Amino acid sequence: MECQKEKNLESCPCTYPGCAKKGLCCECVKHHREKGALPACYFSPEAEKTYDRSIENFVRDWEKYSK
Ligand code: SF4
């Protein structure tokens, strides 16, 4: 399977500047998983901009937008 980086970049919502993992979803997920966190695409646009990728922030964000 060929790397889908260019295609992934079309839908990547991450606004963190300068990250070399952008579009490389396998590396992105691994990086955040090892930190006990989640990638940008799990968050609302508002929460994503805080760069807080913690599971706690994900739950707060989910509770806010799921109601
Ligand atoms: S979510 Fe994290 S690892 Fe993934 S592109 Fe954004 S800053 Fe990089």
Sum this structure up briefly.
The chain has 67 residues and is mainly alpha-helical.
Explained architecture:
With 67 residues, the chain is an all-alpha fold. It has helices at residues 5-11, 25-34, 45-48, 55-65. The chain is globular, with a radius of gyration of 12 Å. Iron/sulfur cluster binds at residues 14, 16, 19, 21-22, 28, 31-32, 39-40.
Layout of helices and strands, plus pairs?
Blueprint: H1 5-11, H2 25-34, H3 45-48, H4 55-65
The structure holds iron/sulfur cluster.
User: How many strands, what sense, and barrel or not for the largest sheet?
Assistant: none
Average residue-wise pLDDT: 96
Question: Any idea what the radius of gyration is?
Answer: 12 Å
**N/C terminus separation:** 39 Å
Task: Using brief descriptors, characterize the structure shown.
4 helices, 67 residues, binds iron/sulfur cluster, 48% helix, mainly alpha
